[in-house]
Amino acid sequence: MALHRLSAFARQIARIALIALLSPLLSLALVAPALAFPAVTIATVATASSVDATPPAISLTEALAQLKQMQVKQDSIKQQTSTATGGKDLDALSDATQQLSADVDKLRSQIVPLRAQVQAQLDVLGPAPTSGETPGTQAVARQRASLNARKDQIDAVLKLADDQKSNLGILSAQFAKLHRGLLKNQLALRSSGIFSAQFWVPLLRQPPEDGQRLGAFDAQVREMVRSVWEPGQRFLTSVLLIAALAIWLGGRKLVQRSLAWFCLHRLPATRLRRSALALSTAISTLLAASVALQVLYLALARRVDLTPALSDLWGEFTKLTLTCALISGLGRALLCTNHPSWRLPALADPVARALRPFPSTLAMLLFVSGAVEAINRIVDTSLSVTLLGRGIVSLVTVLTIGAGLLRANRVRAAMAAAGEAPESHSTVAGLIHAGTALAIIASLIALVIGYISVARFITYELVWFEIVLCSIYVLTKLNRDICASVFSPNLAAGKQLKNLLGLDDKHLDQVQAVVSGIGTSLLMLLAVVALLTGGFGTTPADLLNSLISIIGGQRLKSLDIMPAHIVNAVIGFAVGLYLLRAVRRWLDQEFMPALGMDPGMRMSLITLFTNVGYVLLVLMTFSLLGVRWDSLAWIVSALSVGIGFGLQEIVKNFVSGLILLTERPVKVGDRISIADMEGDIRRINVRATEIQLLDRSTMIVPNSQLISQNVRNVTMGDSTQGVATLVLTFPLDTDPEQVRDLLLEVYHEHPDVLDEPEPSVLFSQLTPQGITLSVTGYVNSPRIAAKTKSDLLFAILKQLRAAGITLLNPHKVMVQNWPTQDSAQT
User: Side by side, which strands form the sheet with 712-713?
Assistant: First the structure.
């Protein structure tokens, strides 16, 4: 037993001695690779425990360089995402993201063995000694510190790779979401129609992914509600909810009655009261809804910070509420069933009463269906669920609007059968009615054949068009009534302006026409902006931002002509054409007559305005289509070549027409003589001028001839008087003084001959054959000179025969400005 213990002790002493002898060599072998680490590849690292491993083929330096390159590629993909416009672009970027993710995985797989080898070395060294320091333990400690530092570097590289992998996963998910969004918003997408069972399947069986997303969103809503319904918060929440409801129901009526009282008792007894009452009804509804929303926000979200999803939901909820409140308010303002005398449009009482429930019903249905669609968008539900929600929205809206139209038509038919007078409406109102009916039919057809997105687009555009139309109608009526009341010479405001500025009634009418026209033009511009940049759920603040952006010069950034751009271009062209004609009619019938312009000046300015307006309208249409001007360079080049050959005359006539309209050497209504032809200018067009000749025929003269040739303008002089001169020859034995007195007497007796300048007789010629006298008289207009000359000849011949005076030769007549008899009849 003692020998056995002695032997064991001897073996222990030998083991300690062997370790003491080998420790310097072992320390050197382990420290040398650590000192050479930056330049050593993973394939050259040797393990102290002789662990067999496959040498990696990459160094940490190369791995870091590759990770930086991959990060640059990832940033490039993100930048390209903002400019992607179609599904093909998104698919290409998604494939690039997947390939980059695979490269990160490959690089990570090459780095992982290095960390395992370093960890194996640390495991061989074991834990750090707790006490005692020897030269061997110091070397082991230094080696352990070096290996830990290298391990930290490897972990940092792996973390970079993991972060890139995570970011690429998020980017792939975003690509999938964008692709789903493009697919949902694609108008050409066709699915099952509303009469197909597949369309209604999501109501009975919800996809699992949608259930998870809706469940997560529902949890956020429940958490918000739970925070305000805890003990100690319920009373305040209940009070705020009741206050919001009271503001919506009672506050609206209170505000409406207050505004109605102000309109009836403080505004002048003109049509301004009706338009102001209509506006007050819409404003009271919108104001009450806005205040109620603020109180509701305090009731539900005062104790939590809204998540992005809830914040987005509240924004959509606000837009829906305000838009639907505006629909309801405009319906009450225009129908006005309680006070028919306040009604602005020409609607019969039975028709207005029949339509009374439809605005509020439509607003309520749009609010519910719009909220459902907003939740689907925020949660990012599947395509089938999204199309189901859109289909239900479109179907409910179309049926409601269609039912309103049918009921109104039925009431009108009953009125016609009873012998009551039909409603008076304009052509524009008839076109709007027909367009609405066509939109409803198109939406129903799209729902039946499976184009749900098309039906939803038509439905929302129809609702938005009706909102803009009704709003602009009320505001236009209000603008005209305000101008008529403020600048009326019979009301207090007009009288004060007359006394303050020293104006007369004519000047007040001119100011009224100008201000009313400017206000109407601005409202039309706002309507165009609303139709082109807005949509269902657009708030007044959004419209203001759109208008400011347009005035500030922002343009569409898209380069392609897309369906939405085509719709905008068609709407913009139609509205611009109607606006151009309306402004032209206003200039011709109201503004320019109020300024006292002559017909010629009026026609010239209106023609110039129309030509410029058409050019601007075409340019606006191209801009709405998304056409870049640099892409039209080839058209300009082609036009340049064409102008050099075939279009030269057209361009010359066009420029000449502009010169005629600006310099006005001749104008509409002038009588001119050109190329031995004489007549009145009836119209100056872009290419040619229409001249009505004395025989009632029309001569078309190119504008360039009126600029380049000699033109005699009979009516251009300062005086508009006509001159008729008669040249008569008498025998030599005739008493010239007697003849002079006779001729002057005839001229003085004619009612059309002016006293100033007075008629005169000149002794123009004395020959062996006889004496020649020339008598001249002036009339008010050259257009009556021929008739006056004829009357004078009859009277002169009668007086000459009575006095026994004869003519030697046939008389010669020279009538200035009006040579023939036919002019007397024009």
Answer: 698-702, 688-693, 677-684, 671-674, 712-713
